[in-house]
Design goal:
alpha/beta; six-stranded antiparallel sheet; 521 residues; 53% helix; 11% strand; five-stranded parallel sheet
């Protein structure tokens, strides 16, 4: 999603790290180190979103927020602060902030929060505009339509929540990602101070384990799990609605709690999938101090059910991933049987490529493409003659023509497998050169896909530092020298610098065995 973001923080390192990360996600970022500078930026051009630190040298973040809210009432604001106490959170949220994140913050979580805030704001603006039109039409017809207007508002708000939750949770591919997204959604929609999510980590488990907690230190709930046979669980076997478990004057539910540490929460809702209980959501008091409304309970029910659907999707995705990895291993074994050199080379190129991609803070989807693509970058060699692959000397001109076809052949093989389509760019373009003199398409510079440029560096380094049928391996030092010498010619100069830094840091212990890399896919 492309949007203008104003980042305000007095820490230059925070400004640099966050702005670079957001720019890589496609956002346009302006930075400010003082409150006055932030107000000037906002006055010159209204951003789509504001990320604001509370501690600024010339005025407090709350003062900046008050000033900006006077001019930009609907501007979404994410507070990013080292103040992690409840008073700071309440002050920021009461001042008009939409979200509160504590430093240090996970860049991955920050990306999710920003994406979610921008989507909610966009939808809210569209809905508000349409709602104003409908209110005007209804008021002109008759006065009693006010009740219909209120119902319509509630319906639109429910639809907005439905769209946000279904998109965010259905997109999750890992349980950890699902729990983080669900936590952000619950806190944002219910405006609660704390929550905990319990679920089944393994099939046929006899208990619900703690998957995530917000508002409290995780250590506070160490070892806490809910046994399936507990009386508390049986309360929800026939009723999947949220239940108030504390602050009711009725200690019936408190007595049934599997652990009194859960009494810090106010409501509990079951997570179900097709009638099967998969876990629980516990939420604390609302930040406003107000009681939960019927609407809050409806939203809690909907989100809990959505979490259940997300959990089932994650389970199915994990099963599918096992099949993908098995297929990938089979392809690798076929290639290794034809070219024994490929065994070590393929694994090392995958390891180097993943190390470089991680240093660039690339997202999980790109990491998966790079892993699959690097493991299969030479798959097209299956279409070459053995005497060319294993020739002990330099190739003839005719043999080189055939050799240069292997990226095209490989891409044709990979494109027939849907789960590997993201790796096609690597398989086809890992022999392109920064100066445009590579093959098969003669692409140059940034026209070469980034994931292919990464594998080009890794592939070339390993080719230089291992024995080939026609020459002995170069030393690491000599290979590094050649990388630096060819930066801006054969290799992306930035990637070459980052990889040389990685080699210098790792020394002899460069490559991670590929089985451990595959295990994390």
């Amino acid at each position: 999603m492309s949007a203008d973001i104003l980042l305000v923080d007095d820490d230059p390192k925070v400004l640099e790290i966050v702005s670079v990360s957001l720019s890589r996600q496609g956002y346009r970022v302006r930075t400010a180190a003082t409150g006055r500078e932030a107000l000037e930026h906002a006055s010159d051009a209204t951003p789509h979103l504001l990320i604001l630190d509370l501690d600024l040298p010339d005025m407090s973040g709350i003062e900046v927020l008050d000033n900006i809210r006077d001019e930009h009432e609907s501007l979404p604001v994410l507070v990013l602060s080292g103040q992690d106490d409840l008073d700071a959170r309440v002050a920021a949220l009461d001042g008009g902030a939409d979200e509160f994140l504590s430093k240090p913050v996970s860049l991955r979580e920050l990306h999710v929060r920003i994406d979610s805030a921008l989507r909610r704001t966009s939808r809210a603006r569209s809905l508000d505009h349409r709602n104003l039109e409908l209110e005007s039409e209804i008021e002109q017809e008759r006065e009693e339509s006010s009740q219909l207007t209120r119902s319509f508002k509630r319906h639109m708000l429910s639809m907005r929540t439905l769209l946000t939750v279904s998109q965010d949770l259905n997109r999750a591919q890992q349980l950890e990602e699902l729990v983080k997204t669900a936590s952000l959604t619950l806190v944002g929609e219910l405006r609660v101070s704390s929550l905990a999510i319990f679920g089944v980590e393994r099939e046929n488990s006899t208990r619900f384990d703690l998957l995530g907690v917000r508002g409290f230190a995780a250590e506070r709930f160490t070892g806490l799990a809910i046994d399936r046979a507990a009386g508390f669980v049986k309360l929800f076997e026939k009723d999947n609605h949220p239940v108030q478990i504390s602050r009711t004057g009725d200690n019936r539910f408190t007595k049934l709690l599997p652990d009194l540490r859960l009494a810090v929460f106010e409501f509990a809702a079951p997570i179900t999938v097709k009638g099967d209980l998969k876990g629980f959501v516990f939420t604390g008091p609302k930040l406003s101090g107000e009681p939960y409304t019927d609407y809050d309970r409806d939203i809690m029910t909907f989100i809990s059910n959505s979490i259940g659907i997300g959990m089932e999707n994650v389970r199915l995705m994990e099963q599918l991933q096992v099949t993908y990895v098995a297929t990938l291993r089979s392809l690798i074994q076929i290639l290794e049987a034809k070219d024994p050199y490929t065994r070590g080379h393929t694994e090392r190129v995958a390891s180097y490529s993943m190390a470089l991609a991680n240093r660039l803070h690339m997202g999980p989807d790109d990491l998966r493409r790079i892993l699959f693509g690097s493991l299969l970058h030479d798959i097209g060699k299956m279409g070459l003659r053995d005497d060319i692959i294993n020739k002990p000397g330099p190739l003839s001109d005719e043999e080189w023509v055939e050799m240069k076809l292997h990226p095209v052949v490989g891409a044709q093989i990979v494109e027939k497998m849907e789960f590997l389509t993201g790796a096609i760019d690597i398989v086809r373009h890992h022999h392109e050169s920064w100066n445009g003199k590579g093959y098969p398409d003669g692409l140059a510079g940034e026209k070469i896909p980034l994931i292919a440029r990464i594998v080009t560096v890794a592939d070339s380094f390993d080719a230089m530092t291992t024995d080939r049928p026609y020459r002995k391996a170069l030393t690491v030092a000599e290979a590094v020298r050649r990388l630096e010498e060819s930066a801006g010619i054969q290799f992306d100069p930035h990637l070459a610098r980052v990889f040389v830094s990685y080699v210098a840091e790792k020394g002899r212990d460069l490559a991670t065995p590929v089985p451990s890399v595959l295990a994390g896919v």
